[in-house]
Amino acid sequence: MSSSQFTSSVYLLTFALLLQTIFGASPLFHFCSSSENFTTNDPYESNLKKLLGNLNYQTPPQGFGFGTAGQHPYQTYGLALCRGDVGASDCKTCVNEASNEIHKRCPYNKGAIIWYDNCLLKYLNKDFFGQLDNQNKFYMWNLRNVSNPTTFNQQTRGLLNLLAKEASATPKLYAVGEQEIGESKKLYGLAQCTRDLSSTDCFKCLDGIIDELPRCCDGKEGGRVVSGSCNFRYEIYPFVNT
Ligand SMILES: *[C@@H]1O[C@H](CO)[C@@H](O)[C@H](O)[C@H]1NC(C)=O
Ligand SMILES: *[C@@H]1O[C@H](CO)[C@@H](O)[C@H](O)[C@H]1NC(C)=O
Fold first, then answer.
1. Which residues line ligand 2 at a C-beta cut-off of 6 Å?
2. Which of 84, 116, 144, 196: disulfide with 129, CB 3.0–4.6 Å?
3. In the CATH scheme, what is the homologous superfamily, with its name and number, of domain 138-235?
4. CB contact at 8 A, 208 and 135
5. Could you give the strand order of the β-sheet that contains 112-115, starting from the edge strand earlier in sequence?
6. How far apart are the C-alpha atoms of 176 and 234, rounded to whole Å?
7. CA end-to-end distance (rounded Å), the chain
8. Which atom of ligand 1 approaches the CA of 32 most closely?
C-alpha cells in the first residue's frame, strides 16, 4: 500500500496484563489516513457502508474477507481478518465492533485501520491487496522483565522464526506454537498474515517484524509487533483458544 496514506511512525504501547484482561474488547490501536477525506453525502460514504456490510457478512465463516465497492473515483477497498483461533461468532462480533468503532474514530477519512485482539479491519480508496503494509504498525509489551534476557530473547526469536515459516506455508497464513524454556516454564507464540499476501510476502513480512524484537520487547515476558499485513505475539502463558 502507499505508505504516505498513513502516518508512518511506530507507536509504542505498554500494556499491563491486568489492563488487557479488563479491556479485552477495546481496540488495541487505530490509524486514520489523513491524506484524503470525504464529506457527508459523498458517494464514497455509501460505498464504504456497502463494503463494511460485505465484510461483516463475508469474514466470519473463513476468518478473512476482502473486497471493493463502487467505481473510481469513489471506489473503496477493504479487508478484515480474525485471529486464526477465533470462531465465526466471535469473529463476527469483532468485525462488527471494528466497523462501528472505526466509523466513530475516522468519520471522514478515506482510509483507516483498526486492530483488536480478535481481528483487524482496514480500508482505503486505493487497491492495496497483496502489498506489504509495514507502515501501519505498533508494538506492545509486558512491563515485566525476564531474569535471563539473553537466553530468553534467543528462545523467543527461535520460536517466532519457526512460526513464521509455518504460518507462511499454510493457506490460513497462521501458526501457533509453544516451547519449553526450562524449569517447567513455557513460551507461547503466534504468527499471522492477512490472506491477501502470497506465501513469500507473508514470510517476508513476519521476518521483518521479528527483526524488530530488540526494539519492541527486549527481555520482556511478552510482546507483539502488529502491522497492517502481519503480526506476532509471544507470552509465557497460553493466550489462544485451543
Ligand atoms: C482530513 O481530515 C483530518 C482530520 O480527520 C485532517 O487532519 C487532514 O488534514 C484532512 N486532510 C485533508 C487532505 O483535508
Ligand atoms: C525492567 O527493566 C527496565 C530496564 O532495565 C527498568 O527500567 C524497568 O523498571 C523494569 N521493569 C520492571 C517491572 O521491573
1. 143-145
2. 196
3. Gnk2 domain, C-X8-C-X2-C motif (3.30.430.20)
4. no
5. 29-32, 112-115, 119-124, 76-82, 64-69
6. 10
7. 33
8. 5
Q: Which three-class secondary structure state does DSSP give residue 79? A: strand
What are the boundaries of each domain within the chain? Answer: 3-129, 138-235
CATH architecture designation of domain 3-129: 2-Layer Sandwich (3.30)
Contact yes or no for 221/185 (Cβ under 8 A): no
Q: Which residues pair with 112 in a beta bridge?
A: 32, 123
Cell numbers placing 126: 486505493
Residue 93 corresponds to which cell in the numbers above? 462480533
Same fold, 3-129 and 138-235: yes
pLDDT value for 224:
97
Q: Distance (Å, rounded) from C-alpha 211 to C-alpha 147?
A: 22
Which pLDDT tens digit goes with each residue over 130-162?
A: 999 989 999 999 999 999 999 999 999 999 999
- Output the CA 144–ligand 2 centroid distance in Å: 7
Distance from the alpha carbon of residue 6 to the mean position of ligand 1, in angstroms: 11
Other Cβ atoms closer than 10 A to 44: 21
Which burial class, exposed, middle or buried, applies to 154 when counting CB atoms under 10 A from its CB (0-12, 13-18, 19+)? exposed
What ligand has the least distance to the C-alpha of 38? Answer: 1
Strand-pairing partners, residue 11, are 138
- Ligand 1 site, residue 7, Cβ cutoff 6 A: no
Asked if residues 167 and 40 have their Cβ atoms less than 8 Å apart, the reply is: no
Q: Select from 4, 6, 32, 34 the residue to mutate for testing ligand 1; criterion: most ligand atoms less than 8 Å from CB.
A: 34
- 225-236-178 Cα angle (round to 5): 85
